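Input record (one chain):
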Amino acid sequence: MRLRVNHTTTYTYSEPVPWALQQLRVTASTSRMQSVLRWDVTLEGAAVQLSFQDNHANRVELAAVDPGRTNFTITIDGEVETSDAAGISGLHQGPMPLWAYLRTTKLTEAGPGIDALIEGLGVLGIEEDPVAELHRISAATSDAVRWEEGHTDSSSTAEEALDARTGVCQDHAHIFIATCRRLGIPARYISGYLLRDDTEEQAASHAWAEAHVPDVGWIGFDVSNGISPDERYVRLATGLDYRDAAPIAGIRAGGGDEELSVGLRISAGADEVDGPIIDTEPLLLETVQQQIQQ
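The corresponding structure, as predicted from the sequence alone:
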């Protein structure tokens, strides 16, 4: 499926900003589930000072806001060819060792709520059928925390979302990750986009989680929608939690009050784009299937 992403984020301040720095993880890359045909990131009122690859293999750009600005805008315009690989993103790669994804963070620290969720699952046959059991964990997370905006924010922990019993995709991902790590299963956070069935216009980007299964690799679980990611998903960044994969994060001095406005449109069936695919070729599904059968 060919997906087109148009995403504009504008920050407006009540007073001129003398200094501000934004950390951007907004560049999609080619993988076995997606081929990036075109991906343009433009800034108005800011300029990129440094680009690098972080320890999760995300492309990161540090952008400085022009001094004295009262607003700046980040615009993403891209096209990606996606495929349905049953949520399997492939075998573990990159500079981070697999055991690092067992490490807890402030947002994914397990406590009484996670322990109660695990106890409610009863006996888990992780070694016999890990994928089925991971889907059970996903379903239990969704049952425990109803999707509803306005009760949590980007600083909310997995335990806080469980206590509130309401949250959004970020909270579902953190709870799933915390549960997996408590059970000794490596897990990570994914930020990206989802083509919705009911509308092209959206209010925010999306998030889900991946768990690592031996001899299979990383498998995605979108707890909020009760499925594994398919051809409707575009991934941007990955990390131990939201803070590692947040598309935009920044610091500033002055500027008074801040107002954020977002315009996001995700559509399917865009026109053909000339030119080569960006980055490397994705790992073929047949290759992973052969690895699973071995």
